[in-house]
């Protein structure tokens, strides 16, 4: 049993646990598990987990697993390719460039940049589809006007 000097309230080490002395606000000591260096494959000391001391016959609560690597944002690649070939070439090209930036940023570990590029790819793809629909409507109107003019001339 060893005492840790630079801690307030004073802490005592027992085996692989650190026991905190009782304070006025807390009547039971809190145990902090210490991890050995190099556990979990990271090569460093992980942060301690604070738990209440175990009583005989009592089960510890199961802590939820936390994923420290966030999910990769959607890159909208297929959507941008559809816009590129079927709707609006320029908007699809910009969306495709941003979809590649999503993968590059995620591989670098820059999640914020990956999410930003994902949002931009999505917005450019939506804008491309909107431009394609507007283009179709305008071209259909022009063709109807031309066909109506030809029909009027023939009669």
UniProtKB/TrEMBL annotation:
Pfam families: CD225 (PF04505). GO terms for cellular component: membrane. It comes from Geodia barretti (Barrett's horny sponge). Keywords: Membrane, Transmembrane, Transmembrane helix. The chain crosses the membrane at residues 78-98, 124-151. Signal peptide: none annotated. Belongs to the CD225/Dispanin family. InterPro entries: CD225/Dispanin, CD225/Dispanin_fam. This is Proline rich transmembrane protein 1B.
């Amino acid at each position: 049993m060893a005492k840790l000097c630079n801690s307030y309230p004073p802490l005592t080490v027992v085996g692989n646990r650190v026991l905190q002395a009782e304070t006025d606000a807390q009547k039971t000591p809190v145990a902090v598990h210490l991890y050995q260096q190099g556990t979990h494959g990271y090569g460093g000391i992980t942060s301690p987990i604070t738990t209440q001391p175990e009583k005989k016959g009592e089960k510890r609560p199961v802590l939820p697993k936390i994923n420290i690597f966030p999910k990769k944002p959607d890159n909208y690649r297929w959507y941008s390719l559809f816009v590129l070939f079927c709707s609006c070439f320029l908007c699809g090209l910009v969306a495709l460039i941003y979809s590649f930036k999503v993968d590059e940023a995620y591989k670098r570990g820059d999640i914020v940049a990956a999410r930003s590029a994902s949002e931009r790819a999505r917005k450019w793809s939506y804008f491309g589809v909107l431009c394609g629909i507007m283009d179709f409507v305008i071209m259909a109107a022009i063709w109807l006007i031309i066909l109506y003019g030809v029909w009027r001339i023939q009669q």
